[in-house]
Amino acid sequence: MRSDIGVGLIGTGFMGRCHAIAFRTAAAVFPLTIVPRMEAVADVNLSAAEEVAHRFGFARATADWRDLLDDPSVGVVAITSPNVLHKEMALAALEAGKHVYCEKPMALSLADAREMAAAAEASGVVHMVGYNYVANPAVIFARKLIDEGVLGKIIHFRCVNDEDYMADPSVPYSWRCRRDTAGSGTLADLGGHAVSLALYLAGPIASVSARVSTVIAERPVLDGESLTRSGPPNAASAVTRTAKVENEDQAVALLQFENGALGSLSSSRVAWGRKNYLAFEINGTKGTLIFDQERLNELRLFEAGAIGDDRNGFRTVPMGPEHEPYGMFLPAKGHQIGFNDKKAIEVARLMRAIAGEIHPYPSFHDGLAVESVIEAIERSAAEGRWIEPGTLAG
Amino acid sequence: MRSDIGVGLIGTGFMGRCHAIAFRTAAAVFPLTIVPRMEAVADVNLSAAEEVAHRFGFARATADWRDLLDDPSVGVVAITSPNVLHKEMALAALEAGKHVYCEKPMALSLADAREMAAAAEASGVVHMVGYNYVANPAVIFARKLIDEGVLGKIIHFRCVNDEDYMADPSVPYSWRCRRDTAGSGTLADLGGHAVSLALYLAGPIASVSARVSTVIAERPVLDGESLTRSGPPNAASAVTRTAKVENEDQAVALLQFENGALGSLSSSRVAWGRKNYLAFEINGTKGTLIFDQERLNELRLFEAGAIGDDRNGFRTVPMGPEHEPYGMFLPAKGHQIGFNDKKAIEVARLMRAIAGEIHPYPSFHDGLAVESVIEAIERSAAEGRWIEPGTLAG
Amino acid sequence: MRSDIGVGLIGTGFMGRCHAIAFRTAAAVFPLTIVPRMEAVADVNLSAAEEVAHRFGFARATADWRDLLDDPSVGVVAITSPNVLHKEMALAALEAGKHVYCEKPMALSLADAREMAAAAEASGVVHMVGYNYVANPAVIFARKLIDEGVLGKIIHFRCVNDEDYMADPSVPYSWRCRRDTAGSGTLADLGGHAVSLALYLAGPIASVSARVSTVIAERPVLDGESLTRSGPPNAASAVTRTAKVENEDQAVALLQFENGALGSLSSSRVAWGRKNYLAFEINGTKGTLIFDQERLNELRLFEAGAIGDDRNGFRTVPMGPEHEPYGMFLPAKGHQIGFNDKKAIEVARLMRAIAGEIHPYPSFHDGLAVESVIEAIERSAAEGRWIEPGTLAG
Amino acid sequence: MRSDIGVGLIGTGFMGRCHAIAFRTAAAVFPLTIVPRMEAVADVNLSAAEEVAHRFGFARATADWRDLLDDPSVGVVAITSPNVLHKEMALAALEAGKHVYCEKPMALSLADAREMAAAAEASGVVHMVGYNYVANPAVIFARKLIDEGVLGKIIHFRCVNDEDYMADPSVPYSWRCRRDTAGSGTLADLGGHAVSLALYLAGPIASVSARVSTVIAERPVLDGESLTRSGPPNAASAVTRTAKVENEDQAVALLQFENGALGSLSSSRVAWGRKNYLAFEINGTKGTLIFDQERLNELRLFEAGAIGDDRNGFRTVPMGPEHEPYGMFLPAKGHQIGFNDKKAIEVARLMRAIAGEIHPYPSFHDGLAVESVIEAIERSAAEGRWIEPGTLAG
After folding, report:
1. What are the φ and ψ backbone dihedral angles of D261, each rounded to 5 degrees?
2. CB-count exposure of residue D63 (10 Å: 0-12, 13-18, 19+)
3. How far B143 CA sits from the closest chain A CA (Å)?
4. Which ranges constitute the DSSP H helices of chain A?
């Protein structure tokens, strides 16, 4: 028997829309026992909420996100608001007894994330954080290869998450540039994704050494633009002054994993030409695995001694139905899923966790582990010494 | 104002499921004036129909596809049944005054396709054929580059559509191997997609020279397997005999375009390692463009003199919101759409055509042009001489 | 014991220089029993001959190539003159009892090539034609994989040789544009290389169907420029008129191999962006092999069932010492040889053939087979029907 | 007028052979004013010395390298002996007034390298260290792009030098595993190359933070195998015990450049599948540049705003005659040089420096800068803190 659960979505930006699509797709393509029912959308901009509700089939829209918490027909709250609001909303939703699906990063500070994780653990509801790249079948398959010993013991993990959305100095000042609205810079936005892959694939990180820099020190301020708004400037806006960017444009870090593996991490929001370059290379004692999210449907795998050495080399492995859960979308190999499908996989996990079939991943607990590493990177950069994330997680 | 139209879906296989997802996704991500409403699913296997109806939100299921035609709540019929049934169903749907969205190939013979196109032209309804790769934003962008003259005059078009789903000789005999159920072999299944790209990008084909071959002459017959069924064999099936494959495993053809360009086409269902290798290279007097559906979110473009020659080379152009309609799915470049999204773009075209906003493409008329080229290739292979598709289209 | 043999080199252009480097390199890196001794260089431009002699260590220079034939210290003649001169020089060298190493194409017409091959067969000396891409370790390894059955039975061979050196319409009229100085166009210059790979890897070609076209019908004539000269125009030259290009800029052909495999060939000298795109894809009943000379140190190989299907994919195999004779140049895999090294491999073959250790390949007999296919392609294009190269070779 | 200079080569291994080829090739393909004359080869194994002398045209062979220093016909000494011998030989050669061309690393310790650099500076002769990858035309072109401002201000430099030649735990214990014969492990062998590129392209390094690890702690000892010998074991050898590996298999480091750029470096000799993966990515404020020595003839370049954004992307730029000094080897773009050609470019620099035409690069002074960074990486790894190479160089 199938039952359903009402979804309350907060936010209608890139991620709000993305969640809406993912809930719809997951409901159709996965054989879920509990199916999401589009119940309500909240956005301070009511007409945006109404438009999304209409388009994606939500029953109603509201300008007040607290309405969702009071509504008994809403069982799960999806939080895609600006990062500065995550904590307040998540805590309120937990308090209201709703399952919580919160976009990353969890909060602007590690202390806040810790508070959220503690509340979540205490709540008894299902909680998840949107580090969605771990839901890519290629990444799931990478983990399977590791678990099955195909790569041998993991000895090295190198990862990068670079984009260029702020590489142009004329990109205006926004909430992303401020400590009080964004927390860290590229680390909060992109670096956390790389950390989520590192933790998922190579395990806990014992210690980090890092350095960061702000490449574009000042950016133009557009009059009349809200600081919580991202995206292209309003054409009517006039630039009359600049403001100081308060957080880092790029970061580099060394990673010492608990299992002895070495690693490194780079993250940049000013790396020209990169659009979604979330990439890793894993070396093990039996093989090497390479991935790049800009070609999300393939892995490059080298296995020592897989075949005669004169015929050996990196294999480009295309994803297919044998790589779960690709087959939910397509029965044919190499036909390719997209970014939104990956988000639907995340939602399907959420639904299955709500149904008690699996443990949610990444939970607030897992999200906290990511934020701890990010915090350790920031502190290491500030203090010029190795920092152990484990000493920060509280 | 938005209105809706009832969808009647025939078939629940790969393409049936794919249509169901596409209708749902298109309804949400595109700002349609006429929105698809999931009305009914038909499949001779009623439980399959019921399962799809339940999963994808159709109001009801039936074992008799003719029910859809009698149902006034159904406005558009999507035909994803085995190829042998396309003609009968399409003609009946047209007769019933429904809009028709028919999977490719249109029919098993050119004569049948011609009859279907004539009926469609006479009908006054909207008709489309599922040559969906022309709906990929990368392909649409390729056409835009050509139309804008970026490549100059087109002088060469080379295309391939290779897969390996029948490369293993133990893949059993099926309806795909028979003339009376499949018509041609790789040409009907894969070659038509390559032709659809050729016609869309390089224009009408004046003449072809071709050769085909059947690589695996006989295949094992599985007892108890229906000939209309494809997919992996039932484990309980026993092989007691083999049967002769009646159509081609691979084909090669030269293409003489009306505009003077030369070209070639290859198609194979027995090309090991290829999964969805629908690829083309276009040479123009000002540049070259390369595409491969196995990396569907990128194009490789060379422009003569775009920059100083010592810095020139093929650019790998990632798709993004500036390549319509990628932006309907994602606001960020390089994040990638998937196969199913491309099919949703096709459905959105269908809906917009029904709303009278655009001409449908590819219509039955366009589909007939594809089938004419395929027929010309088959005849050329049989007769060992150049054949003009234009003389076959009736 | 090692002995040596005097080399007489005719021509000092791209290929003349390339031969000079190759003789020097081969002498050092290969353990030859007969070593080339740089004896003399001939060029109508005596100062060019002297410069090359000085640079590459030849004992003397001459303006008259016939001097080499009269010289008993010259044992082998390397012919790198303009194509129109190959026949006369090769016949004279054979007549003089010299071993002959002639650049491709052998001659401007099949009749001439046939005469040269007959003279060579009758001569008792060693004769080779410079279809050097068959000497690439990657190509030799491809042949080995085929011979060992790794690919199974060959069913398809697709090849291309595209460059863009005449894509710009301002490239001036030259000897390459004339029938009486160049014979065919892209077929003679580039297409023959593709044919040489086809014959080497997939065997004799039974029949071809082809079409050709001249994209740039007229080219500017530079006053004061010799028609036998290629390369960039003299800056002082003034364009006062244009002349009609007499041969094809591009060609496409279907190939029916004697062993039943199908194939196709494209060749263009006007394909923007391509610099040395000599590429092939071979499908066999057990695997697929892909090569591109623009990345000459690697092959892409797919083997059916090499490993579990969820880990299978095309392997990028880097060349190394296990791929003969790469190890003559470098003991370390993946460090890469260059174009000139490949030519040195060809020269080493020549030397070993002179020492009686191996059969020369490609001999004038093998070269004639290439020219026969080129001639068949030209005739097929002219007559619009399938042509059997075997009926042309005399 | 051209003169010549006698070359005395010490060592006949991979690099000895490679130098021999390079001297011969450079003499022919470059228009040098001072040309190398093959004078003598020294190796403790006299028959190896004789074989190389014979093959590569050296006038004589000796078992005692000091013979070269006493020989007035030798003007330049090339040192390719095991690393442990570099210092003694280089100092003696400088003392003897010979020009010195020493393979990398300069020595086993920074103190030794410093002593060598000081002696070299005081000597008045030409001195060079074999960090040859800076001589690749692609790398030279990368530097040119940076110098011309095409990338804007450099903000990030990520580099890797990974191979897998010791990834197999059965690779026996050798001199490479010992501090007293090799100094550091992957850093001395591979990491130095990455550092040489970092210094050449992004400038001096102010500070590093690093960590290293030895993955395979013990390796089998082959009886009867010399510790100074590398390469595959003698088949007759029996393994009776293992010995402890004394230096690192892999290293990771953060790089703080003096110009403000951040960076990272990885080096491994146990990274399965990598053969010559010397790779870098440079981000500047105007573009990004990517290189991988495993495809040594191409660069990937992204330039912000080079063309309309919908057509922009990374360009794969093939090397050609416009990228100096590629044209010395080949007049045609995309035809590709090899590893040995790159070494010939290094030798040509040496010859031109001896002729007084250019400053030698990398000189012993430049080599010392590399060794200082390597030493800083080692110390940082040992001490767990940031180390400034500048404080180490003496």
Report:
1. -65, 145
2. middle
3. 22
4. 14-29, 46-56, 66-70, 86-95, 110-123, 137-147, 179-182, 186, 192-202, 339-354, 364-383
Assigned token pair, A180: 């009080």
Q: Whole-angstrom Cα distance, residue D300 to residue B313?
A: 9
* 3-class DSSP assignment, residue B166: coil
Q: Taken in order A94, A96, A100, A106, is the CA torsion positive or negative?
A: negative
Domain extent listing, chain C: 3-131, 134-335+359-366+368-383
Q: Is D252 on the interface with A (CB under 8 A)?
A: yes
Q: Phi, psi at residue B60, to the nearest 5°?
A: -160, 170
CA angle B274, B293, B176 (to 5 degrees): 55
The answer to whether residues A126 and A353 touch, using CB atoms and an 8 Å cutoff, is yes
- The type of residue at D258 is E
Tell me how far CA of residue B158 lies from CA of B135, B281, C266, D208, in angstroms: 19, 5, 9, 52
C303 and A307: CB-CB below 8 Å? yes
**DSSP helix/strand/coil, C157:** strand
Minimal CA–CA distance to C198: which of C360, C389, C341, C378?
A: C389
For C299, phi then psi, to 5°, come to: -125, 150
Report chain D residues whose CB lies below 8 A from the CB of A309.
none
Residues 318-337 of A with CB under 8 A from C: 318, 320, 322-323
The beta-strand segments (E) located in chain C are 3-10, 34-42, 60-62, 76-79, 99-102, 127-129, 154-162, 205-213, 218-222, 239-244, 250-257, 262-268, 277-284, 287-292, 298-303, 314-318
CA nearest neighbour of D200 among D253, D119, D127, D145: D145
Q: Is D311 on the interface with B (CB under 8 A)?
A: yes
**Distance in angstroms (rounded) separating the CA atoms of residues B5 and B100:** 13
Tens place of pLDDT per residue across chain A (394 aa): 679 999 999 999 999 999 999 999 999 999 999 999 999 999 999 999 999 999 999 999 999 999 999 999 999 999 999 999 999 999 999 999 999 999 999 999 999 999 999 999 999 999 999 999 999 999 999 999 999 999 999 999 999 999 999 999 999 999 999 999 999 999 999 999 999 999 999 999 999 999 999 999 999 998 765 544 444 445 556 677 999 999 999 999 999 999 999 999 999 999 999 999 999 999 999 999 999 999 999 999 999 986 668 999 999 999 999 999 999 999 999 999 999 999 999 999 999 999 999 999 999 999 999 999 999 999 999 999 999 999 985 5
Cβ within 8 Å, pair B307-D307: yes
Of B212, B184, B210, nearest to B384 by C-alpha is B210
CB B326, CB B319: distance < 8 Å: yes
- Residue C313 CA to residue C301 CA, distance in Å, equals 8
pTM (two decimals): 0.96
Contact B333, B318 (CB under 8 A): yes
CATH 3.90.79.10 fits D134-335+359-366+368-383, yes or no: no
In this complex, the residue of A158, A260, A270 whose CB is nearest that of residue D266 is: A158
H or E element: which one contains D15? helix D14-29
Omega before residue A31 within 30° of 0, cis: no
Spatial CB neighbours of D282, under 8 Å, sequence gap ≥ 6? D142, D146, D151, D154, D156, D157, D158, D201, D202, D288, D289, D290
Q: State how far the Cα of A71 lies from the Cα of A51, in Å rounded to an integer.
A: 20
- Number of Cα atoms under 13 Å in the Cβ half of residue C203: 14
CA distances from C63 to A219, C47, C51, C57, C84 (A): 69, 9, 12, 17, 18
> What ipTM does the predicted assembly reach?
0.95
CATH (one of 3.30.160.340, 3.40.50.720, 1.10.1200.10, 3.40.430.10) for C3-131: 3.40.50.720
Nearest to C64 by CA among C90, C92, C41, C86: C41
